[in-house]
Every structure is written in C-alpha cells, then in structure tokens.
Specification:
Blueprint (H helix, E strand, L loop, with lengths): L1 E3 L2 H9 L4 E3 L12 E7 L8 H14 E12 L4 E2 L2 E2 L1 H4 L5 H9 L19 E6 L17 E4 L10 E7 L12 E5 L8 E11 L5 H7 L4 E9 L2 E8 L1
Length: about 240
C-alpha cells in the first residue's frame, strides 16, 4: 500500500492498479502496529523543522508491528563522500539526452524525487522568509538575510535549507498560481516558450543527523545507517 501527498501521483498508481491513497506523512490513517515494513524515500527532507522531521519518523515507527522494519532515505549535504562524487553530480555533464527526453515527455525522471531536474538556472535568492533558521553545521554557509537560496542543479549544496527549481515541462499553469517563468531553449527563437518554475523546499541532511534523530526515539533501534549515492539512509527496527 502506498501513500503520497500528491493526488496526481496517487492517480498514476491507481491507473497502474496499485493500492495508494493521498495522506500527510505526519498523520497516516493506518492502524498502529499493523505494518511489517515501511519505506520512506525522499520525503522527510521536505519538512522545514527538526520537530516535524522527528514527528514524521515517529509516525513511521507507530505503523510498525514489534520487530517490523523501516527504511528511510533523505538527501545528503555531502554530495562528495569518501572522494567519490554522487550520481547526482556526475549527471551534470551527461544530461543532454535526459533533457531531450524530458522535453519530449518520455523520461520518467520528472516524476521521481531522487534528484532535481536538469535546469541550468543560476543560483539566486528567494524572497521567501525562513524564520528561526540557525543551523550552520556541516560547514554550510549561513543563509543571508534569512532568505532561502535557490539551488543550482547538479552542483554541491552550500546550505542545508534551500529551494530546488522544478521546471514544468510542457505543462500549463493556472491563473491563480504564482510561479517564476524561465525561457526554455528549443532550438530556434520561434520555438522558445516560457515554462513555469516551481521551487521545492529541502533540508539536506549532514552525516549522522538522520541517525541521531532516529536514536532519540526509544521505540526503535537503528539496525543500519549508511550513505548511498548522495543520500543518507537508515534501517530501523520497532522494539
């Protein structure tokens, strides 16, 4: 059984005859202790406070039966680890074919949250205010003027809290939506058109941060903590 905050993604699951429903990760409408295993991939890094991120892990643990396990993946601040670049960084120079696929609507990546799209947008500053942001660990630069930096895709992270551009390929925006627009290259000047750009909030995790949050809960035990292609990962067991 799957769940997601996005109704459109859940509808895709229904079309493929999978069981899925719309819900909030902070309040999953499933009975406590009823799951053998739970998987949370690229979800928790979208919550903007440490308290909400911890509450999400606690909710995940609530669903598990005693002895049940959970797998959690979040984006890592460290996109270069043990002298190895992550797949995310390596794709920077080899993404032309992916861009072509995305523009023709054949690529699967825009539906995935394993990495942002192949934008070449320059780094900028968002006008969105971030209250109470004081985390300067991992050697990250403090956020100037309490504004969230907009990440330049396929580059290393310079802040733990940031916005990642999402270019809507071939989509239409509703009048009530307030989004940025960017000129998308399309060969000739006549074929160029404006495409809406959405900004997704991320809190990228430093080494040990996810594991420490999990260990602060007395209802679970950390079985394994590891790094995988630009993600920090933890396997939990319900006590």
């Amino acid at each position: 059984v799957g769940c997601d905050r996005s109704k459109n993604l859940v509808d895709i699951c229904a079309e493929k005859h999978f069981q899925a429903f719309v819900c909030d990760a902070l309040s999953v409408p499933i009975r406590s202790g009823s799951c053998d295993a739970c998987i949370s991939i690229a979800v928790i890094h979208h919550f903007s406070t440490a308290e909400r991120r911890l509450a999400t892990i606690r909710e995940l643990a609530r669903l598990l039966r005693p002895g049940g396990t959970a797998l959690i993946y979040v984006w890592a601040m460290e996109q270069e680890y043990k002298n190895q670049k992550s797949k995310y960084l390596k794709e920077k120079n080899g993404s032309k074919n992916k861009e072509k696929e995305m523009n023709t609507g054949t690529a699967q990546r825009p539906l995935s949250d394993q990495g942002p799209d192949n934008s070449s947008q320059d780094s900028a500053w968002s006008d969105q205010l971030l209250n109470g942001l004081k985390d300067e660990s991992c050697g990250a630069k403090p956020v100037a003027d309490f504004r969230l930096p907009v990440h330049t895709n396929r580059t290393s992270f310079h802040s733990q809290d940031l916005l990642v551009p999402w270019h809507l390929k071939g989509g239409t925006k509703k009048k009530e939506e307030s989004v940025d627009t960017v000129l998308v290259p399309g060969g000739s000047k006549e074929s160029q058109e404006l495409s809406p750009v959405f900004h997704r909030y991320y809190h990228v995790f430093c080494e040990g941060e996810l594991e420490a949050a999990c260990r602060s809960l007395d209802c679970v035990r950390v079985q394994k903590s590891y790094y995988d292609q630009g993600n920090w990962c933890v396997i939990l067991e319900k006590l």
